[in-house]
Amino acid sequence: MSDIRRELSHLLHLEDLYKSYGDKLVLDNIDLSVSAGTLCSVVGPSGCGKSTLFRLVLGQEQADSGRLFVDGNPVAAPGQDRGIVYQRYSLYPHLSVLENAMLARTLPAGFLERQRRRAEFREEAMHYLERTGLAAHADKYPHELSGGMQQRVAIAQALIKRPKILMMDEPFGALDPETREHMQVLLLELWEAERMTIFFVTHDMEEAIYLGTRVVVLSQHYTDDRGSGATVRRGARVVGDYVLPSAVNSTKVKRSAEFVSLAEEIRRCGFDREVLRHVTEFNLRHPDSFQTLSPEEARAARGTA
Amino acid sequence: MPALAAPDRRSPTGGLFAPARHNVVLALLPFILIAAVYLFFSHQRLAENPQDKLLPSLGQMADAIDRIALKPDPQSGDYVLLVDTWASLKRIALGVGFAALAGLLAGLNMGLLPRVRSLFSPFITFVSMVPPLAILPILFISLGVDELSKVALIFLGVFPVIARDLMLTAGQIPREQIVKAITLGASQTAVIYRIVLPQILPRLIDNVRLSLGGAWLFLIAAEAIASTEGLGYRIFLVRRYLAMDTILPYVFWITALGFTADWLLRQLIIRRFRWYVATSS
Partner of A156 for a Cys bridge, out of A132, A178, B18, B218, CB 3.0 to 4.6 A? Predict the structure, then answer.
């Protein structure tokens, strides 16, 4: 498939994306296409640049070079086609739960429209709060809620906008294990009902596999033909890309043999600094997966091709 | 051995864990002490010389209060304390009010918009270092000796502090909140005035509380130099007659006004900004 077709046919398309901070190269030639309807988890060891990638897709930061498209449009700044749920700071502390959930309607509206359509906005927000199980707490303030409840509000708040992509950065990272599993099940149910596209960044491998219909592994532990030594700066890239069955499963699936062996495979390819796979040997099994290699990176690939 | 021993109050670090008890008694103690010292020396001096004016007795002060607060002035027919209080409160409210409003707008925009910050922040930092009392003569010369120069002095003393603090506060709003607001459809104006402004309002009130002390200082200095009424004017007027029996109640009255204003603003924060109290402690 030619590049331009990929840009148009995929909801999210990243190609040859590089990002560095000072001398440190963080993202090194990232190639990634995501189709609509995918629940794409991005997993990788801490410090591998997951959150940097997240900010680039949001448009909060700019890549050094490369191309980045959301629904065929180049990304330059944060926009309304991408919704966000962060680990923290998703809610506005000075607004009640209901007011937080209504923001997607009240923020773009002028003063008069807000007064006129107040009941309508309120009703819509209450509907989403009901779906995330928080209708009973609509009049409380964020500081009066537990971490899990806050994230439920944050999800409702983002969903009302019906974004093309829901971007989530470690949204359940600060929750205790039990709440975390409840939230995972809730998210899968919402995803199935709304047919959303979700870009889910996490460092928790089990969470990535349990939630994702696709797991993208981002890691700096790999090798290529650029040689070794201090002069070669290597950043993280997509080292694995797996298709997973799309179904809301009981969390018991996390103990199945299949699940455990996939987790083991991902651990080897992304998290183990002893195992360095060559760029030409990455396991990029997902049909949307593609890889562009510079000549220096893959002399061997061309030699053997 | 008990699993959880109560902290031993006699231990060298026991003071750190002392239970909060007898708070009211402890709080009143310094007041009682200073009143007792005053009354003791006042009594001694008056016993030596009944004409002494330096440390008037409670009775003498009560007479003075009766004269200035409870009976109209024989010449003008006004209640002097009331006239002075009204004049001073008007000046301080105008000065602090304008400073708060301008400080809020300046701080908000400097904190969020880098180019506005580059334009104004160094200038306001520079202006904040000008001692306001040093330019009081300039204000009197250029703005006249009426209300405007006094309000301007308070404004110049208070505004830079509020603007700089609110700039820092607005700058500390998590970037995530702003990006998120944009994804929810907020314009730049909406981010500034509907997302960030409501969050720094309670901080503005705290700033006003802290700046009231300075504002009174500027007010009394301005009134002492050129005025025809006002609390500061009266104190410096009766100073000529060593009228400590009037000065002391006036000082007490000014302190009470400041204390009340601070308390009212604190109540406003507690009642209207519950989230601020809960998240900033």
Answer: A132
| Position B25, amino acid | V
pLDDT tens digits along B225-276: 988 899 999 999 999 888 999 999 999 999 999 999 999 999 999 999 999 9
At residue A229, the 3 state secondary structure works out as coil
Could you please report the per-residue DSSP string of B136-164? Answer: HHHHHHHH-SSHHHHHHHHHHHHHHHHHH
Residues of B within 8 A of A161 (CB-CB) are 183-185
Query: 0.90 exceeded by the pTM?
Result: no
A108 inside 8 A of chain B by CB: yes
**Which of A92, A139, A157 best probes binding to B when mutated, by most B CB atoms within 10 angstroms?**
A92
Structure tokens at A167: 């971007």
Element (H, E) at B97: helix B80-112
Residue A107 pLDDT class (50, 70, 90 cuts): very high
A148–chain B Cβ distance below 8 A for any pair: no
The Cα–Cα gap between B62 and A171 comes to 67
DSSP state of A28: E
What is the separation, in whole angstroms, between the first and last Cα of chain A? Answer: 19
The reply to whether residue B274 touches residue A104, judged by beta carbons under 8 angstroms, is: no
Ordered alpha helix ranges (H), chain A: 3-9, 50-58, 97-106, 111-116, 118-131, 147-159, 177-194, 205-211, 257-266, 299-304
| Nearest CA-CA partner of B232 in B92, B54, B78 | B92
Buried/exposed B149-178: b ≥16 CB within 10 Å, e otherwise = bbbbbbbbbbbbbbbbbbbebbeebeebbb
Burial A20-31 (b: 16+ CB within 10 A, else e): eeeeebbbbbbb
Domain layout of chain B by residue ranges: 85-273
- Written as one letter, the residue type at A165 is I
Instruction: Please report the ipTM that was assigned to this predicted complex.
Output: 0.87
Residue among B169, B175, B183 with most chain A CBs within 10 A, to mutate: B183
Give A147: exposed, middle or buried? Use CB within 10 Å, 0-12, 13-18, 19+.
Answer: middle
Q: How far apart are CA A212 and CA A210, in angstroms?
A: 6
- What are the tens digits of pLDDT across the range A242-276? 888 766 667 777 778 888 888 888 888 778 777 77
- Say yes or no for a CB contact (<8 Å) between B190 and A107: yes
What CATH number does the domain located at B85-273 have? 1.10.3720.10
Beta-carbon separation of A83 and B183 below 8 A = yes
Point out the residue among B177, B185, B279 whose CB comes nearest to the CB of A104.
Answer: B185
Where, residue-wise, is CATH 3.40.50.300 in chain A? 3-81+166-304
Chain A residue with CA closest to B187: the answer is A108
Contacts of B190 in chain A (CB under 8 A): 107-108
> Whole-angstrom Cα distance, residue A261 to residue A282?
17
Choose between B154 and A45: higher pLDDT: B154
* Contact of B169 with B203, CB cutoff 8 Å: yes
Q: pLDDT by residue (tens digit) across B114-164?
A: 999 999 999 999 999 999 999 999 999 999 888 999 999 999 999 999 999
Domain A3-81+166-304, CATH class in plain words:
alpha beta
Q: From chain A, pick out residues whose CB is under 8 angstroms from the CB of B175.
A: 60
